[in-house]
Design goal:
The chain is built from 4 helices and 13 strands. With 235 residues, it is α+β, with helices and mostly antiparallel strands. Strand 7 and strand 8 form a beta hairpin.
């Protein structure tokens, strides 16, 4: 999609892979990509009057959450850590900056990359399966009891949801996107440990997002710190 963007591909195009041999997550991490899950990318051409481009992560998170949340309430094991299943129906939440969790287990990830005026938004959703043996809990729609789902059909729904939130972002600005994100994210006061790109680790509690989509962390001394980028670890 980055190559197509450089060649002038239009906003609204989507690409879907049946499987990936070099799937990537944030910070250059690998993303396991077996058959059956949803791996897709789209692009947005940002204009001079659009909100700041990195806030498209909130647009994508709202769309993915709206797709996943209704499918995660029908029972089944909710997560696995090291291959061991948990139990109970799922409760989907957004984790800053770009993960969707179900009862604390990652079910989807989002990655933004830029070339020129194009922001390429990559989305991976665990549909039929999820990795095992990781050091963090993960889950899938199938593990949540969502039934027999096909990635192509999910993409049709996802593209409509993304277009809906993109339209709001563009016509009304970031505020309604941010408000909806906050309603579906970790609640204020949630303890967090944030690993910054330079290696510093900051501990505190989630406070809010600022008007530019940055994470505001409340420190133990009562001060607030704005985080632009980092890996968030929840308890």
């Amino acid at each position: 999609m980055l190559a197509l963007a450089e060649q002038g591909a239009a906003e609204g195009m989507w690409l879907r892979a049946g499987r990936q041999t070099g799937g990537r997550g944030r910070m250059g991490r690998s993303w396991e990509s077996p058959d059956g899950n949803l791996y897709c990318s789209t692009l947005v051409r940002v204009g001079p009057h659009d909100p700041v481009p990195h806030t498209l992560a909130l647009v994508a998170a709202n769309a993915v959450h709206a797709l996943v949340a209704p499918l995660c309430g029908t029972g089944g094991p909710s997560a696995s850590v090291g291959g061991q299943a948990g139990g109970g129906p799922g409760n989907a939440k957004i984790k800053w900056p770009n993960d969707i969790l179900v009862d604390g287990a990652k079910i989807a990830g989002i990655l933004l990359e830029r070339v020129g005026d194009a922001i390429v938004i990559g989305i991976g959703i665990n549909v039929t399966g999820h990795p095992t043996g990781l050091d963090r809990p993960v889950t899938s729609l199938a593990a949540q009891g969502a039934g027999d789902l096909e990635a192509g059909a999910l993409l049709e729904r996802l593209s409509a949801l993304f277009a809906h939130w993109l339209g709001i972002w563009r016509a009304q600005g970031l505020d309604p996107v941010r408000t909806h994100w906050l309603l579906n994210a970790h609640p204020p006061g949630t303890p967090m440990r944030v690993a910054l790109p330079d290696g510093e680790v900051v501990e505190g509690a989630f406070d809010t997002l600022d008007r530019q989509g940055m994470l505001i962390l409340r420190l133990a001394n009562g001060e607030s710190r704005a985080i632009h980028a980092g890996d968030v670890h929840l308890p």
